[in-house]
Amino acid sequence: MSARTSGERPMPIDPIAEARRQWLEHGWADAAPGMTLVTSVNRAQQLLEARVEAVLRPFALSFARFEVLRLLAFTREGRMPMQSAVRRLQVHPTSVTSTVDRLVRAGLVEREPHPTDGRATVLAITDAGRALVERATAALNDEAFTATGLEEEELAELVRIIALLRKRSGDFEDPRPVPEPL
């Protein structure tokens, strides 16, 4: 997997390893592992995002717009209250609103009044939105999600470690045990 543009060669050194060396040289040994983690994760995100965005470009979708469409397409009826979408996407409400605005202008999503809450809005995927997200999902599965550059075991371990970081950062809790039926 390469996120570099054609003609660009890999760097002769790992700039994150060099930054770590500099941190150590400047006496910040206690912070060097954390700095290395943060910059490594940020760079990995850039590489993964570039790959995903390149796959989605022919569909005129960003990953944020794809996520909204995919979320709606996963629901039974293709609808969801805007607040539920905000919670599940884990982004600021303003970002979701901006993303939805673009999808509405493109005819891929519609806003509907909430059936019981006059202040709330329901998002509904259109037939065009559903068709587009299915094609985009197939492309992402073929060109990005199955071509990560890591082996299956490596992927599982990386996801496990990142989930541990997310959980310890308060991103989610383990589900509560479901009581046995009486």
Main sheet? 3 strands, antiparallel
The total beta strand count reads 3
Radius of gyration equals: 21 Å
Structural class: mainly alpha
Whole-Å distance between the termini?
Answer: 52 Å
Estimated helix fraction: 55-70%
Low-confidence stretches: none
Tell me the name of the CATH class of the largest domain: Mainly Alpha
Given the structure, what is the number of helices? 7
Sheet with most strands: strand arrangement: 1-3-2
Keywords: DNA-binding, Transcription, Transcription regulation
Protein name: DNA-binding transcriptional regulator, MarR family
GO molecular function, one term: DNA binding
InterPro entries: HTH_MarR-typ, MarR/SlyA-like, Tscrpt_reg_MarR-type_CS, WH-like_DNA-bd_sf, WH_DNA-bd_sf
Describe the structure.
The chain is mainly α. The chain has two domains: 15-59; 61-150, Winged helix-like DNA-binding domain superfamily/Winged helix DNA-binding domain (Arc Repressor Mutant, subunit A). Helix content is 58%, strand content 7%. The chain is built from seven helices and three strands, in the order αααβααββαα. Strands 1-3-2 form a three-stranded antiparallel β-sheet. Strand 2 (109-113) and strand 3 (121-125) form a beta hairpin. Helix 1 packs antiparallel against helix 2 (32-56), helix 3 (63-74) packs across helix 5 (93-105) and helix 3 (63-74) packs across helix 6. The chain is globular and about 60 Å long.
Give the arrangement of secondary structure elements.
Elements: H1 15-25, H2 32-56, H3 63-74, E1 79-81, H4 82-89, H5 93-105, E2 109-113, E3 121-125, H6 127-145, H7 152-168
Antiparallel strand pairs: 1-3, 2-3
Helix pairs in contact: 1-2, 2-6, 3-5, 3-6
